[in-house]
Design brief:
FAD/NAD(P)-binding domain; D-Amino Acid Oxidase, Chain A, domain 2; 2 domains; 9-stranded mixed β-sheet; 8-stranded mixed β-sheet; 8 helices; 28% strand; globular; binds flavin-adenine dinucleotide
Length: 393
């Protein structure tokens, strides 16, 4: 007889595991399945750190981040350890009246003032005096002291351990090839095995288009392969780097699109040689894909590595050399917003993470739980609707 679960969750990344964690005490049986392993390197949740902040240009995201921070805190109490490190975040560079996928300095300042989020304003001189960052005289900065880094791998481990401790199942190396909606949801795995569940959550990250299509949704979605790297730095500088985003105005078509980010030294490499993580926050056209297949052997374009190195060695003091590079996917929507919605009575989805969802994990998990249980949502989710006009093809 086919086994029947209360909830099946497709995807063992941030969204799948945070929703399993949220649901763990509310239903009898959850099955989380992943085609690889949880938090695998082909999906978007790999690596040890992600930034969290309330410094958003869009008040909706700033408010959601505030709620998320309250929920992170209660998860940390249960865990008995920190899942976030609050070392602050610097937004610095130029403001030219346009929004990037991370927002802009001016609009973020306005939102923080409205939301009463504490922040400091800094001149270019003050920035360079405080951190080993070179600036142009016209640059400006905002520093949000309560922001910082989420310990992403530790959070995934915590949600996984808690889910299993509560008697639920996590199966890895099982690929779901079909999700069929009816009175129950029938899931078929690649090996032909079928299972039933009352409710289903699709949390397939960059593979979401496959399931959206299967269920009749044609929406805009692009996969951006994002470059980040570890750099070695002079030992005496190691502890002096902040967490930052740098914004620079560039012409459309310029191979350097001017948006970069970096982490302080977090001691997060196994064979730690004093490395800091720095990334590019745009993708060149050749790294923007319609369909995602990690088996496609994508090479990191040499000119993109040179662009990153050029920024790093021009604007950051004390960097010695690039020692490790990675590509990791953002699932982008045209408005850089998420999809968190019901596709049918029994099937809910989180998708279109747009490279910024980890900090929202507790609100994503809790809202998916409430969709599954037909409970009132934490807040209005219409900006994340799968049917919003900006996603229409
Ligand atoms: C380089 C980079 C930097 C980022 N920085 C930040 C940051 O600073 N702050 C922040 O808040 N966010 C950040 N993000 C975004 C954040 O990491 C993602 O939003 C989040 O990890 C997305 O999680 P997910 O669960 O939606 O997707 P994923 O982690 O990709 O999980 C989807 C899972 O579904 C599984 N799956 C897919 N199809 C199937 C199938 N058919 N059968 C079984 N399993 C399947 C996959 O194997 C995968 O494990 C960053 C992302 C990247 C890539």
């Amino acid at each position: 007889m086919t086994k029947k679960y209360d909830v099946i969750i497709v995807g063992g990344g941030m969204a799948g595991l945070s929703s399993a964690f949220a649901l763990r005490n509310s239903v009898d049986s959850i099955l989380v399945c992943d085609q690889y392993v949880v938090g695998n390197a082909f999906g978007s949740s790999s690596g040890s750190t992600r930034m969290f902040r309330e410094m958003y240009s869009n008040p909706y995201y700033s408010r959601a981040a505030k709620i998320s921070n309250v929920l992170w805190e209660s998860q940390e109490q249960l865990y008995g350890k920190r899942l976030r490190v609050p070392h602050g975040l610097l937004f610095y560079g130029e403001d030219w009246g346009e929004e990037t996928i991370e927002g802009s300095i001016c609009a973020a300042k306005q939102v923080m003032q409205e939301q009463l989020t504490p922040f400091e304003e800094l001149t270019a001189k003050e920035i360079s005096a405080r951190w080993p960052l070179r600036t142009k005289p016209s640059w400006q900065g905002l520093f949000e002291p309560a922001a910082g880094a989420v310990l992403a791998r530790e959070a995934l481990n915590f949600w996984e351990t808690e889910t299993v401790r509560c008697g639920h199942e996590i199966r890895t190396k099982v690929k779901v090839i079909s999700v069929c909606d009816g009175t129950d949801v029938e899931i078929t795995f690649e090996n032909g095995v079928k299972v039933l569940s009352k409710r289903c959550i699709l949390a397939a990250g960059p593979w979401s288009r496959y399931f959206l299509k299967l269920l009749g949704y044609q929406v805009q979605l692009q996969i951006w392969q994002m470059l980040w790297a570890y750099y070695s730095v002079e030992t005496n500088r190691l502890e002096s780097y902040p967490q930052w985003f740098c914004f620079q105005e560039k012409l459309k078509g310029d191979p350097d699109q001017g948006l970069y980010y970096g982490f302080p030294y977090m001691g997060d490499r196994k064979s730690d040689r004093g490395l800091i993580k720095i990334g590019i926050d745009w993708a060149p056209e050749k790294l923007k894909l319609q369909d995602y297949s990690p088996l496609t052997n994508i090479k990191i374009p040499r000119e993109l590595l040179e662009t990153l190195d050029n920024f790093v060695f021009t604007y950051i003091d004390g960097v010695k050399s690039r020692v490790e590079t990675h590509l990791c996917p953002y699932t982008m929507s045209p408005d850089a917003g998420f999809v968190l919605d019901r596709l049918s009575n029994n099937i809910s989805i989180f998708s279109h993470d747009s490279g910024q969802a980890f900090k929202f994990a507790p609100v994503i998990g809790e809202n998916l739980k409430r969709l599954v249980l037909d409970e009132p949502l934490l807040f209005d989710l219409s900006p994340w609707s799968v049917n919003r006009s900006s996603l229409l093809i």
